[in-house]
Amino acid sequence: MVILFGNPSLTQDYVVAAIYSATNNLAIWKASSGAEKKWIYLDDVGKDLAVDRHYTDVIEYKGLIYAASATMGIISIDPFNTAGNNGIVIKEIIRSPFIFRTPTYLAESSKGNLFIIRRIKELGDYYWHNTLQFEV
């Protein structure tokens, strides 16, 4: 999953956020003018966060990037605040309330509210399958 924060056709200050790999890690690419252009891997800079770093969704919302973990932890990332580690500021918004993993999604409503949506799945003999419901 990849999101683009800003329009590279209109500005040199844009950010790309990507969930990558089989373990769903998160990385940020800052293309700001004057900044070193490289991937910032959150599994490196976010080690002190209690949020499970198995990310399931990422969204741009009101000037920040929000990421949801598989255990319903939420972090916000300010990619333009250079005071933080590697030129970004990461804050834990919701500490992971669950120890088991379930897909968690983020959505912006038509009224501008941010919603956290959790997918409840049935546990089989060895793995999760069959969606039972969604909780908002």
TrEMBL record:
Residues 2-136 form the KIB1-4 beta-propeller domain. It comes from the Eukaryota. InterPro entries: F-box_BR-signaling, KIB1-4_b-propeller. PANTHER family: OS07G0183000 PROTEIN-RELATED, PROTEIN, PUTATIVE (DUF295)-RELATED. This is KIB1-4 beta-propeller domain-containing protein. It comes from Saponaria officinalis. The lineage of its organism: Eukaryota, Viridiplantae, Streptophyta, Embryophyta, Tracheophyta. It holds the Pfam family Beta-prop_KIB1-4.
